[in-house]
Amino acid sequence: MISIKTPKEIELLKIAGEITGSTHNFLKPYIKPGITTKQLNDLAEDYIIKRGATPSFKGYDGFPAAICTSINNEVVHGIPSNRVLKEGDIISIDIGACYKGYHGDSAWTYPVGKISKNLEYLLEHTEKSLFKGLSAIHDGCHIGDIGFAVSKYATEHNLSVVRELVGHGVGSDVHEDPDVPNYGARHTGPILKEGMVIAVEPMLNLGTRKIYLLDDDWTIITADDKPSAHFEHTVLVTKDGYEILTRR
Ligand code: MG
Ligand code: MG
């Protein structure tokens, strides 16, 4: 069932979203060659706690860290470690913050120092595909309208769409109904109503759309080891469109 949030719940989701977006803002200047993903994790966790929230992903299904850090060919769910970021890497950082029982969820892929033209292209167009997907949202739209918009844009730009991982509803659980795939057909799937809150999160690859789970049982990589990018916002469905809750 897709829940319609009460005004009180929306108020808390807005605060959780603001903390999530601000954590990205806070972290961004630290994303440079020489820092480890564990250092980024600890900075984010401290910031989230200082803001009166808790990291949504820590302990979620046993996830061992506060944020997900996925580098280059890693699609999602990378575990922060002593791995050092290098000039020319890209890193997807997925952050969730829980405030008084309600969550925000937002991922962004960042360049580490100067990156190649290919990677710039991947980041630019994956971000744009997120906003294409969001632009399909309004009271009365179908979930399929979002995925159609994302995949149409991705295909036009020769990027492949990961299908096994999808967006989702957000509320008192970080992952709620409905699934929000990044592919689909117009006018199909559940209908969205004003007051619903969902996360839209395209994961686009430079090579194959196929993915592979590493032995750590968390990190998902591309099957051909080519780079992948991930952009995500949590949004509130409104009468005429949407409101981004995790904006910076
Ligand atoms: Mg996320
Ligand atoms: Mg998500």
Explained architecture:
- The strands form 4 sheets. The chain has a 5-stranded antiparallel beta sheet. Strands 1, 2, 4 and 5 form a 4-stranded antiparallel beta sheet that branches.
- The protein has 248 residues and is an alpha+beta fold.
- Strand 4 and strand 5 form a beta hairpin.
- The protein contains 4 helices and 15 strands.
- Helix 1 packs across helix 2 and helix 3 packs antiparallel against helix 4.
- It has one domain: Alpha-Beta Complex (Creatine Amidinohydrolase), CATH 3.90.230.10.
- 27% of the residues lie in helices and 25% in strands.
- The protein binds magnesium ion (2 copies).
Strand order of the largest sheet: 8-7-9-14-15
Major sheet: 5 strands, antiparallel
Give the amount of beta strand, in percent. Answer: 25-35%
Approximately how much helix is present in the residues?
25-40%
For the record, give the distance between the C-alpha atoms at the N and C termini, rounded to a whole number.
30 Å
Class by helix and strand content?
alpha+beta
Contiguous helical run count: 4
Order of helices and strands: HHEEEEEHHEEEEEEEEEE
The CATH class designation is: Alpha Beta
Mean pLDDT across residues: 98
Please state the CA-atom Rg, rounded to the nearest Å. 17 Å
CATH superfamily (homologous) name = Creatinase/methionine aminopeptidase superfamily
Domain count: the total is 1
Find the CATH topology: Creatine Amidinohydrolase
Number of strands: 15
Low-confidence region ranges: none
Shape, please? Answer: globular
Question: In the CATH hierarchy, what is the architecture at level 2?
Answer: Alpha-Beta Complex
Task: List the ligand species.
Answer: magnesium ion
